[in-house]
Every structure is written in C-alpha cells, then in structure tokens.
Amino acid sequence: MQWKQLLTSAVGKKFVMGFTGLFLVLFLIVHCSINFCIFVPDHGKTFLEVAHFMGFNWIMHILELGLFVGIFAHIIQGWALTLQNRNKRPVQYAVSRRNQNSTWYSRSMGLLGTLIFIFLLVHWANFWAPNRYHMITGGKELNLFERMKSLFSHGWLVIFYLAGLFSLFWHLLHGFQSAFRTFGLDSGKYIPLIRGIGTAYSILVPVIFALMPVSIYFGWVS
Amino acid sequence: MNFTLKVWRQKDSGDPGHFETYPVTGILEDMSFLEMFDVLNERLIVEGKDPVAFDHDCREGICGMCSMYINGRAHGPMKATTTCQLFMRHFRDGETIVVEPWRAAPFPVVRDLVVDRSAFDRIIEAGGFISVNTGNAVDANTIPVEKDRAEAAFAAAACIGCGACAAACINSSALLFVASKVAHLSMLPQGFAERRSRVVQMVAQMDREGFGSCSNTRACEAECPKEISYSNIAKLNLEYLRASLSPQGPVVQKK
Questions:
Q1: Is there a contact between B200 and A5 if contact means CB atoms under 8 Å apart?
Q2: What is the domain class of B3-111 according to CATH?
Q3: Residue B196's closest chain A neighbor by CA?
Q4: Of the CATH numbers 3.40.50.2300, 2.40.50.140, 2.60.40.1760, 1.10.1060.10, which one belongs to the domain with range B117-245?
Q5: Staple partner for A124: which of A128, B44, B85, B151, CB 3.0–4.6 Å?
Q6: What are the DSSP calls for B30-96, one per residue?
Q7: CB contact under 8 A, A184 and B237
Q8: pLDDT tens-digit profile of B76-127?
C-alpha cells in the first residue's frame, strides 16, 4: 500500500481538488477581510497598514508561496481532470438532456474555473505584479488604495471584475459543497449545515468583493 | 399510438454506426418501451430486415439488463424507471423518439443498442464480495445490526448494476455503482472486516476500466432506476480516505 493512489486515483485526484479548493476558500476569507478595510472612512489608512503588514512579513511570504502552489495545483489538476473526463466518452450522445438531471454550473466547473483564471491574470497584472515590482526596485509598496481608486474609475474594468466575481459565485456554489462531499462530510446530518454555509459563503464573498470596485466607481469611498 | 423512432444501428464494435428512422404504428399505450421494440422487430423480420438488437431479461425492473438512452435520458424521461417499466403512455402520440446505446469508453457497443457491461463484473471481482463463506442463514438477531444501518445497507444493495449512472454521468464515472457496493458491504458486520482493501481495489479497477472521476453533479442519482442515494459516494470517499491514510494500509492483492 503506497501513498500514490491517495493523489492519483479517480478518487485521489478529487482529494487534490477538494483540499486545494477548501484552502482557497479560506484564503478568500482573508483576502476579503483585508480589502474590506477600504470601507473604514480614514482615506485608506487602515487598509494600507494591513496591506503593509501583509507585504513586509516573512511569514506572509511563505504563506504566499503556499497560496501560489495551492492555486496552480487546483488549476492544473482541474484542467487535467476536465480533459481526462471528457476523453472517457469518445462517442457523444446525439441527444442529451442534462438539464433534467443536473445543474449547469455543476457541469461547468472547468469552464467557470478558466473564466476565474482569466480574471486572476488581469487581477494580478493590476495589483500584485506592479506592487511586487515596486517593492523589489524601490523597497516600498505601492499605495494600493490610490491604485484601486484610479483603476476602478474605468467602467469597463469594473464590469470585468463583476463578471469575474459572477463566475466565482457559480464556481463556489457547487465547489464548496462538492469539496466537502469529496471528503465524505457532505452526508447525513451534515448536509443542511454544509449546504447552508456553502450557499451563504458563495453569495457573501463575491458580493463583498463586488462592493469594492462598485463603491469606488460611484465614489462612495472617501 | 404512432411514433417515429430514430434508432442507433451498428453492426459490431468496428462499425462506425448510424441512426436509422423507423415509423411504428398501432402501439398500445400500455405497452412497455421494449414491447414497442418487439413490435418493430417483428415487422423488420417479416420484411426480411435485420431486427434491432437490445438487452433485456426479466422485464419487471429488477435485473438491470435493459439499457437505452431515450431522448437524451438514461432509461427515458421517467424517474426511478428501467426501460422495461417505461410505458408508451408516457410519450406523446406522434412523437419522434431518439434511442441510443449507453455511451462511455468502458461500455463498448457490441451491436445496435447492446453494450458490453462486463467492466462492472470486473469491478465486483476486484473486491465487491465477502471472502469467507458465511454459511447457512443464521437466526435473526444472532449478529446484531442497527436498524438504520441495515436499512441503509439494503437501500445501497438495491443497485442492479444497469450502468445508467455511468451512462448519464458527464464524466462517464461509475462511482455511484462502486459506492453502492462499497457502502452496502462496509455497513454490515460480515463486510466490515475487508472494507479497506475493498474500496481501494474496486476504485483501482474502476480506473483500469477507464471510467472517469466524480464531479458531484448528481446526474447519477437522478437517473438511477433504483434511486440509489449519492450519499453513498460520500461514504466511499470517506472509506477511501481512511483506507489510504491508515498506517498499515489495506492488504491489496496484486493483480
């Protein structure tokens, strides 16, 4: 009995997806809470202090490394699974009424994940990459509060962010409970608990994130 | 009742196959879907044509032999129904009905609507049994089993191995089938002892056969003629995790 099948069998691959997925769910709570500080009406002082703590702290750098490993493991395993699973049916059905037996978003996790990845690339290019560049070359981080304000003055970028978060909502709506099911927990008396928390989380997190570009665009943030 | 059937015809596994359209007339509303095929086949035989090959056996919904993907649904549009228990009154008069075989790489088409489901037999051979002879039926209550557990094991044991779960799954995953066997046996005292090696070996065989992974879409549960709960998949996942993490690990027989 080896460790290998824990990660590579049909069930093992799902453990990788579920584990990294739940890790990213935890990360989103942290990300969301920090960004929420922009709503403190002190011209972004609180937000910048927290951002500074996250930016200049070696523990955070190690965690950030782990985060990237988690994100890419989730993306690569997700794509691999989508492609492998697709190949399991070489001849497709001529007529298929999948809407009658399952939800569209549970069947579209690969597509939704890819949309979120495209969003992420733009998001990193907007904030993470210029900030790191500035830190390495200048030894100081960017004023991310000002950067948010200037970037989110563009309506098209706000719409792009909202579209990314909309994909995230559907992805989480299935992914949250699916991850718990993969670990055998979405069962019996835990079902209402996990479904309830999962649905609330999937709505709350994207809505809180969406509030940021929207409120900056409409000038609700001082 | 009259129908237009679009039926998948394929001579053998090497033939690419094609749809053929057959009008069927004078069908009684209380005929089953298979009886409608009997009517069609009798006519084809009289006309000197090749009848449509399809799997069937008990015709009372308990054997799991009949298959057919009907109008885009495994075993047709009704809930908890095998094809033999699907009646023509569930269709509109004059409707065009598309009939295809199960589609999944591990279920190769043998002929027309008949697919080879022996992959499921090999999964059972990999561990879906109890190794010791349990002897004669003993007195009830000699081995105490909790009522709820017995009920859940029985509900999982209702699986007839028809393959609708894998046929309907977007990933062609057979996990509901495997999970029903794993849950059924691991919940009872006789099967409990071998639960670790069983789950690992059955999943390994499922992989070897070429079935996909589970995406938790629940299509399997919706299409299962025996309404096997997809909670059994959660049970299998937990059994698999436990088996894989146990320090000694299950004793897996080399194949």
A1: yes
A2: alpha beta
A3: A1
A4: 1.10.1060.10
A5: A128
A6: TSBHHHHHHHHHHHHHHTTPPPPP---S-SSSSS-----EETTEET-SSTT--GGG-BGGGS-TT-E
A7: yes
A8: 999 999 999 999 999 999 999 999 999 999 999 999 999 999 999 999 999 9
